[in-house]
Each structure stands twice: as structure tokens, then as C-alpha cells.
Amino acid sequence: MAFRKEPPFTHGKAGKTAIVLVNLGTPDAPTTKAVRSYLKQFLSDPRVVEIPRALWWLILHGVILPFRSSKSAHKYASIWSNEGSPLKVHTSKQAILLRGYLGQRGHQVQVAYAMRYGSPSIPEVLEQLKADGCERILVLPAYPQYSATTTASIYDAVFAHYAQVRNVPELRFIKHYHDHEAYIQALKESVLAYWAMHGTPDKLIMSFHGVPKRTLLLGDPYHCECQKTARLLAQQLGLGPEQYQLTFQSRFGKAEWLQPYTAPTLQKLAKQGVGRVDVMCPGFTSDCLETLEEIAIEAKQDFLRAGGKEFHFIACLNQAPAWIAGMASLAEEHLIGWPTTESEREELKQQAEASRQQAMRLGASQ
């Protein structure tokens, strides 16, 4: 096996620390060709679709890609901004702000962002960080709730890349933060700020991305972590059980997924006479197709057509100051023991120089 070429090694130079914020991904453009390429990569991941490969290959290439790409491209076009894909724009800005916030706290760390599918890819970002001299990498998934379909797939991509690398850096992964105080606080501030401007609803809907029910039965903790996030946020908002509801969106295929489903729930509430619902998506830290199109457009239509009076969409955390501070706190907890401040880096540099001198003396004496 041939390993990737290593950059020149410099003795006595303290390596850098980096954080990689990883989100799901997005097409490069809202076109059928770009969406088809993106969907092919995304839906070819065995973590995402656990159907026997040969059968799934026929379904993917014979049915889904030929017929779904154009439809999905139209949906992407409806939410595409002048800056590009909302998910990519928000993730990029989060990375910039996180680096600045950590820098204000005295941490000298690089912060980059990568996409599990699409660009910038995990391998190309990790390669650039190696070229920049980063020897410690903290991977921060943009998914608060762990799922094998999302977080574990990031692990797969990182490990697959480093299986081709001779000099592997020190690695740390953040598995989940569904119940982290800073994350819940950021959600709370987001909701309260919206309500301060627009009043309160009859019911708050917390819509999470769905996964097949069989994943829960096979041991995936995602369902339980979504439940805990919703419960903690409701407690912080002072909501009783009748004032909020957790639902799951984005069902795909004929198999049973986690329930209750978002769209049917909204229709049912409207028919029951619930006048106003506010919908938020706590499992998404950046607004994207699933929030801006599926919820803010499609779900709104479902509710109003069923007789509802008011539908409000509460945006994702995006670049909210409380969330940037929350990510910084989360990162600091996982950076413990790694030199990120000037004094820590200077100490590491001195230790490296001392080791180099010692090695030279030992070599001279032999």
C-alpha cells in the first residue's frame, strides 16, 4: 500500500492544534447535475442506507437518481442565497466566528470546516491541516444528537483518510452534546428572542430529522437523545407537556421511521383547532434544505391548508452569539491537555528542543 506523501518534517517545532467542524454537506449548485452527484455520494454511504448493496445499487441508479435529482434541485433553488448554499454559508461563518471567539479566550487554534458529502471534503481539509503543521485534531460534528447515520459516518471518513497516512496526528472526537448546558441555553435564548418579538404559540413543535425505526431497535441512541434535548429545552422554557411536542421529519421510503411524523402531526393539530404553532429544528445547527424548504415552506402549507391560522418557523442557531459561545465552551472541554495558549505552546516548544538536544547528545556518544 502506498501512503500519501508527507510534508517536510521540522525538528523542534511545536505542532499546532486544529478543530474541524463537520456538517452533512450540500450540492455545489442548485442544478440537477450537481444534486445528482451529491445524492449519489450521500445515498451510497452504507451508514445512511442499510439495504444490501446490490439491491440498493439498482434502486439508487435505476429509480432515485434519475427521478429525484431534478425534483431536489428545484427545492434547493427555492432556498439558495446569493452567497450560495445556506448550510455551507452558515457552517463557514460558524467556523470563522468560533476561531475568533477561542482566540479572544487565549487559544491559538485553527478552525476549519468540512462536509461529509460534497466540498470541502473531509480528506482535503485534513490534508491542508497537515500541510499547515497541525498535529492535534479535534473533530466537532454539527450534529448535537449522535446517530450511526450521521456522526459515525464522519468517524468512518476520518479513519478512512488516515488509513492512507503514515504520520497520523493525535485525534479526538466529540460524540454528542444533546444535553450540554451551553447547547440547551443557546436553544432557549433563540426561542425566547423570537417570542419576545412575535408572541407565543399555542404549541411549540420540535422537529428532528427522522431515521428508520429499526435503527432504534438495533441500538442507535438517536431517538433517546432527541427526547432528552426536547425535554431539557421544554424545562428551560417552562413549558408543560401539553405546550410542546417532539416530531420527526424527512421520512424516505416505505419503511416505518421514528414517529410521530412532523407533517401529519401539524395537520392533526390544525384540525383539532390549534391556531398557532411555532416549529423549530433543534437537531440542525445550521439552516438548510430540511429546515428552510421542508419546514418553513412545505410544513407551513400543510398546517394552513388543514385549517391552522398561524405558522411560525424559528430559525436554527446559525451564527447566534450564544451558540458560538456554546461551541467554544464545548471545544474547550475537549481540548483539555492540549497546548492551545501561548504559554502552553512555548512550554511544548521548549520540551521539543530539549528532546532534540538530548537525541543529538546520545547520537554523538555512540
From TrEMBL:
Q: Which Gene3D superfamilies match?
A: 3.40.50.1400
Stretches of Polar residues bias are at 352-366
Reading the lineage from the top rank, the first entry is: Bacteria
> Annotated pathway, please?
Porphyrin-containing compound metabolism; protoheme biosynthesis; protoheme from protoporphyrin-IX: step 1/1
Per UniProt, the keywords (alphabetical) are: Cytoplasm, Heme biosynthesis, Iron, Lyase, Metal-binding, Porphyrin biosynthesis
Family according to the record: Belongs to the ferrochelatase family.
Q: What is this protein called?
A: Ferrochelatase
What species is given as this protein's source? Answer: Collimonas rhizosphaerae
